[in-house]
Design goal:
The structure is a single chain. By secondary structure, the protein is mainly α. It has one domain (about 5-100): Phosphotransferase system, lactose/cellobiose-type IIA subunit (Methane Monooxygenase Hydroxylase, Chain G, domain 1). The chain is about 85% helix and about 0% strand. It is built from 3 helices and no strands. It has helices at about 5-30, 35-60, 70-100. The longest helix is centred in the middle third of the chain and has 29 residues, at about 35-60. It is elongated and about 50 Å long.
Length: about 100
């Protein structure tokens, strides 16, 4: 897999993870916690996939700047970090809905 395909893998998987988190939140708001939990579980799968690609890129670089940094790589990292934040916040919000 070439670098561009790897970067797109991060973007696609991170985006899917984030979307599923918000679907889970909508389910929790509607009181369907079983569906919310299932969506969060599925979101975690996509988050792991994105993180795996990121880890592979970091390992290939070996901290020596071997991998050329591009705007699309920065964009991919942004997507990954946003999806991680969404997961953390949505998890907390679902817990709040669950208590009420």
């Amino acid at each position: 897999m070439d670098l561009e395909e790897q970067v797109m893998g991060i973007i696609i998987n991170a985006g899917q993870s984030r979307s599923l988190c918000y679907e889970a939140l909508r389910s929790a708001k509607a009181g369907d916690f079983s569906e919310a939990d299932a969506k969060m579980h599925e979101a975690q799968h996509y988050a792991r996939e994105a993180h795996l690609v990121q880890t592979q890129l970091i390992e290939a670089d070996e901290g020596e700047g071997k991998t050329k940094m591009t705007l699309i790589m920065v964009h991919a990292q942004d997507h990954l970090m946003t999806s991680i934040l969404a997961k953390e916040l949505v998890t907390e919000l679902i817990d709040l809905y669950r208590r009420h």
